[in-house]
Fold this sequence. Notes:
Blueprint: H1 2-29, H2 33-55, H3 58-89, H4 95-101, E1 108-115, E2 121-127, E3 130-136, H5 139-156, E4 162-166, H6 179-184, H7 192-203
Helix pairs in contact: 1-3, 2-3
Amino acid sequence: MARKETAAxxxxxGRLKQIALTYKMTRRADKKIGLVLAAVGIVxxxxxxxxxxxxxxxxxxxxxxxxxxxxxxAIVFGRRAERAAFGQxxxxxxxxxxxxxxxxxxxTTTPAVAMNRNQDVVHRAVGKxxxxxxxxxxxxxxxxxxAAEKKKMNRIVADVxxxxxxxxxxxxxxxxxxxxTTMLKLPRVLTGPQVTATNDRLRALGDLxxxxxxxxxxxxxxxxxxxxxxxxxx
Length: 234
C-alpha cells in the first residue's frame, strides 16, 4: 500500500505540471481562455446554488454545482486546448503525422512512406477501413505523389480499399483538425485478421525510405522516420 501511495503522490505533481504547461500553451493562441474558464465555472456553480436556495437545499445543490462546474470547466478547457493546438500545428510539416500517431487503437500508422525533394509527404494508416493515405504539402505537387503511392498500394494489396486525402483548407482538402474524424467515419470493411495480413504484406516492402531520394536540407520539424522499415502497431 505504501508503495502505491508513493507512486500516486509522485504522479500528481507531474499531472499538475502537464496541465499548467497545456494552459500556458493554450493561452498563447487563446488570450481569453482564463476569462472563459472562470465564467463557465462561476455561472455553472451559481445556477445550481440559486436553485438550491429556491428549493431549500443550498448545501446539497452547492456541492453538486461545484462538482459540475469543475467538470464543465475541464470539458471547455480540453476543447479549447485542442483547438489551439491544431491552430498552431496547421500548415507545419509533419502535423498530419502527429495526428495519425494519436488516432487511437485499431490503426497502424507509418509516417513518410513517400516524399519528394520539395518535402511534400504521404503518410499511411491501416485499419478496418482499409488503407488511408494522408498527404501534406503543396496541393499541386502532392497529387502526383499521392497517385503514385495509391497505385502502388492497389498493386500490392488489390483486395483492400485504398482511401486518400490531402490535408489543407482548400477545396477538396481535409482540415487538420478533421483528419481523425474523417478517418473514423470511413466504413469498416476488414476484419482483424485481414488488417494483420495487410500489414504483413506492406511490411514485406521493406524500408521504403531507403529506396527513395531524401530531400536536401533539414528534415521537416516534428517528422519521424519509420523504425525497422515497417509500420508501427498501435
